[in-house]
Amino acid sequence: MSGGAGRRVIASRGGGRVVLDGADMIMLGANDYLGLSTDERVLAATRDALGRYGTGTGLYPVFATTPLHEALREGLAAFLGVEAVALFSSGGAANAGVLTTLVEAGDVIISDRLNHASIIDGCRLSRADVIAYGNRDVDDLRAALVKAGPARRKLIVTDGIFSMEGGAAPLAEIHALARRYDALLVVDEAHALGVVGPEGKGTAPLSGIPNRAPGLVLTGSLSKAMGGASGGFVAGPQAMITQLQERCRSWIFTMGLTTANAASALAALEICRTDAAPRERLWANLDHLRAAFRFYGLACFDSDSAITALKIGDDDRARRIGEALRAAGIYAPAVTFPIVARGEARLRIQVSAAHQTADLDEAAAALAAVLADERA
Q: Which is catalytic among the residues 224, 230, 250, 352?
């Protein structure tokens, strides 16, 4: 049985498989990149937190915190190599909080056209003027900075990893332009944390820039590689984090990260920091699946991350392929307009460290067969 508006119902999960609408199938649509949401070490930490604190503290974060939250803040700051971190209830809340606190009417935000919806909404809520530039187009970004002129404040915002195809922003060039034009640079690391760059420390280190580079602020999500539970963060200089905690409405006037979610993320972060095996399994699985796609002649977007997007084109065709794959026991969601432009529909495939290579082989063969039937 499916949920409302075409949503599917997951009855149970295990490894890289789920029971979806009553059928066992291979899950290739989840953000659980390191497979830590079902790791017993993470589950044990979550159970302990539930026993100690219940489902949450019932207090706004401006009034109280817990040792779990403080350890997570300090652990994230140390892992990323930044001065300080503020925790938010979600990555979207973190994006909205930064953009509505650090700029205001009379300022200018220069935003990549393909940024995540939460960034676009944060730009609108900020009341700053917004100039969009072409996706990962450094020349267009330079032109936008020139167009911004002598704005009181300028802020460039970009996804680190773009979620619809998996490519990385050219942060070395973007950061150089930000410094040249005296602009703050905000990078959303939702799909990079724990996965991309040296030791999983993100897109900036992947580009050769330290996370504590001048004028750089990071946002991100804890709901992906960091154990799959909800939560978000902002990381950067201590003065900026203090400013957020004093002025940011999406931090002050909402319930914060639950104690259970903080415990999950903290345990996942510790695994990510000390155990390279999940990340190595993830990249080995990615290499295996992408090699299979090449064997079958399947065209993918270039990717610097765990996201593998297969080019389909027509929206209706992408939906038909997605339905046929579900019938074959593979969940690989079709992404269509308005999420992507018309004519650019794709299957957005996300591999996990929890997948078995046999499952990946089965998925690639099924996809090749479905596409062959489509062409027949």
A: 224
- Does 223 share its domain with 246? yes
pLDDT-derived band of residue 229, with 50, 70 and 90 as boundaries? confident
What is the pLDDT at residue 322? Answer: 95
Tell me the pTM.
0.95
DSSP state of 29: S
Give the total number of structural domains in the chain.
2
Q: Is residue 180 part of a domain?
A: yes
CATH of the domain at 362: 3.90.1150.10
What is the C-alpha to C-alpha distance for residues 106 and 127, in angstroms, rounded to an integer?
Answer: 8
Q: Catalytic residue among 90, 163, 207, 223, which?
A: 163
Please tell me which residue in 191, 230, 250, 305 is annotated as part of the active site: 191
- The alpha-helical segments, DSSP class H, found in the chain are 40-53, 67-80, 91-102, 117-126, 138-148, 171-180, 203-206, 238-247, 249-252, 259-274, 277-295, 315-327, 357-375
Does 345 lie in the same domain as 235? no
Per the CB < 8 A criterion, the answer to whether 216 and 209 are in contact is yes
Is 191 among the catalytic positions? yes
Least confident of 48-62, 82-96, 258-272: 48-62
pLDDT at 6: 64
Residue 83 is part of which domain span? Answer: 40-274
Q: Quick check: is 35 in a domain?
A: no
pLDDT digits (tens, 9 = 90+) for 231-243: 999 999 999 999 9
Say if 104 falls within a structural domain: yes
